[in-house]
């Protein structure tokens, strides 16, 4: 996953939903133009801040990503790795608003082989007409969805 995100981040402004301890942000920033990463949990946010401090193209923020990133962007890559559930229409629209035309949303940790119908994450990312998306088996036990925002 980190190799895929490192590749997709190249030259882009990246937003990460859920920093955890900053591991993936540290990888994406190697190729990205910029990375802004947001973490809700104060202890995790502190660890991420420490790990990522002094890196000139990384901004580490604490709080609810939907509040913290409202009005920011658009980004060329959004790694949707935290705060998705419970899934709501409002959240999807907020995520889409972060992504520039041609920009990418990545969602990992998908259980392979599940139907699209009844799976709110798949229904949005694979069926929304504003996106062109593919589900890829990253490991035997984990799939990832890569969705590109179509031009308006
Ligand atoms: C799977 S972990 C992120 C891992 C990290 N992206 C990485 O690859 O290193 C998900 C994180 O999202 C955070 N999170 C959950 N809801 C959030 C929200 N509304 N805003 C920001 N972060 C949130 C959780 O606290 C958790 O640390």
Q: Give the SSE order as H and E letters.
A: HEHEHEHEHEHEE
Mean pLDDT, all residues: 97
- Rg computed from alpha carbons, rounded to a whole number of angstroms: 15 Å
Bound molecules: S-adenosylmethionine
What is the domain tally?
1
Low-confidence runs: none
Which secondary-structure class do the elements indicate? alpha/beta
Number of helices: 6
Query: Mind telling me the CATH superfamily name?
Result: Vaccinia Virus protein VP39
Query: What percent of residues adopt helix (DSSP H or I)?
Result: 25-40%
Shape: globular
Sheet with most strands: 7 strands, mixed
Architecture (CATH level 2) name: 3-Layer(aba) Sandwich
Biggest β-sheet: strands ordered side by side in the sheet? 3-2-1-4-5-7-6
Using DSSP, what is the number of strands?
A: 7
The N- to C-terminal Cα distance equals 29 Å
Kindly estimate the percentage of residues that lie in beta strands according to DSSP: 25-35%
By CATH, the topology is Rossmann fold
What would you say this structure looks like, in words?
With 152 residues, the chain is of the alpha/beta class. It has helices at 2-8, 23-28, 42-52, 65-68, 89-98, 120-127; strands spanning 13-17, 34-39, 58-62, 75-80, 99-110, 131-139, 142-149. The chain has a single domain (2-149), classed as Rossmann fold (3-Layer(aba) Sandwich), CATH 3.40.50. The protein has six helices and seven strands. The protein has a seven-stranded mixed beta sheet with strand order 3-2-1-4-5-7-6, sandwiched between helices. The longest helix has 11 residues, at 42-52. The two termini are 29 Å apart. Bound molecules: S-adenosylmethionine (SAM). S-adenosylmethionine is lined by residues 16-20, 23-24, 38-41, 44, 64-65, 81-83.
